[in-house]
Amino acid sequence: MDQSARKFVITYTLTLMCIAIIITIFEVTLIWQVFITLTCLSTVIITTPTKKLPVKDKAVLITGCDRGIGHVLAKQLDRKGFYVFAGCLKNRGQGSKDLVDGSSSRLQTLQLDVSKLTQVKSALHTVEQQLHSKGIQLWGIVNNAGICYIGNVEIMTEEDIQKIMTINYTGPVNICKHFLPLLRRSRGRLVNVASNAGLAPIPLMGAYCASKSALVTISEVWRYELKMWGIKVATIIPSGYKTGIMSYDMIATGNRWWNKASPIVKKDYGQECFYIKFKQKNRDFFLSAEFSDICYKIEDALLSSKPKSRYYSGFLAEFIPFIYIYLPVWLSDYLLSVLANWFEFNPKMQNY
Ligand SMILES: NC(=O)c1ccc[n+]([C@@H]2O[C@H](COP(=O)([O-])OP(=O)(O)OC[C@H]3O[C@@H](n4cnc5c(N)ncnc54)[C@H](OP(=O)(O)O)[C@@H]3O)[C@@H](O)[C@H]2O)c1
């Protein structure tokens, strides 16, 4: 029994039990019995998994497969029977090698830096050739590649602020500009991996938040624009996965920023603030190394007959945006100062 079927059976059983308990304990009148039963069953129907389309002869392009979510997803979709084109930032690296060694011959890795148009064009050329020779169509694109640096925009260099935007937002735009004609022909699926940081502010992740907000917005726009071609678009909102995204070389990055910072910024912040770390207790508490939920949701976005427009996955993915959007400012400011206070950050000039 797969995860969705198991979830359905559990939800259905629990619902029936709850109805029975409420009716027995409270001896409710017939009209209430009907109301409670209908409410509970409609909830079950809404959460019931939809029909899955067959995988046979479907190809999918995933970006950022060297490690992390993209890497695990590429292997999972290969096991399911997809033809996977796994874009890797370093196609001769260990991640790419692991993918080839651990997958079927249907999976093919590609050199693909999403910020470099020459590589996007060359990947398109390879994919078109492969599709043609195998007689299959490109069914899905998963824009997964992304980077994050921790720091505020006063501390970071202009180049690194720009780099975050270029990879996280311009990258998916580059991919779509080149690959959408293939999806138009298959009436396939576009899946964009954004972040809860694109829906709510996370202190010290401003550049990343802005890039993911841009991605969330263009993803929604594509959802409307591409409907006329039969292409369905889903935005994935992950949060709290223990991947490589925060394990960049913080010392080299901090040194780079420190060397380019203005004297007044150096004086006000102090050098410590250029090497911002996750508070260890937060790292242990907030991050999970188990990727099955997010991979399952991306698979659903690719194969469900009625995919959702947005999928949330991981600790706090839905909760942080909910707090930010729906609660009164005094309360959301307080809760976010507790829930999104993830990093060690103690500027020298403390009288602010
Ligand atoms: N982890 C989370 O909790 C979380 C939360 C919200 C959103 N996300 C999003 O989920 C996606 C996957 O991230 P992850 O957590 O799996 O991080 P990850 O482990 O760092 O994986 C990101 C992948 O993207 C690759 N990449 C970096 N720059 C690239 C470029 N210019 N072109 C193509 N590929 C590039 C990286 O290559 P290298 O390995 O060579 O660096 C890596 O393989 C990202 O879009 C991220 O923003 C993750």
Structure description:
Strand 2 (83-88), helix 4 (94-101) and strand 3 (108-111) form a beta-alpha-beta unit. A seven-stranded parallel sheet has the order 3-2-1-4-5-6-7, sandwiched between helices. The chain has helices at residues 3-26, 30-47, 68-80, 94-101, 117-134, 158-186, 206-225, 250-260, 263-269, 280-286, 292-303, 319-326, 329-339; strands spanning 58-62, 83-88, 108-111, 137-143, 189-193, 232-238, 310-313. It folds into two domains: 3-47; 58-244 and 288-323, Rossmann fold, CATH 3.40.50.720. Helix 1 packs antiparallel against helix 2, helix 3 (68-80) packs across helix 11 and helix 5 packs parallel to helix 6. The longest helix is centred in the middle third of the chain and has 29 residues, at 158-186. By secondary structure, it is of the alpha/beta class. NADP nicotinamide-adenine-dinucleotide phosphate is lined by residues 63-64, 66-70, 89-90, 112-115, 144-147, 167, 193, 195, 238-241, 243-245, 314.
Features:
alpha/beta, 2 domains, 7-stranded parallel sheet, 13 helices, globular, binds NADP nicotinamide-adenine-dinucleotide phosphate, about 350 residues, Rossmann fold, single chain
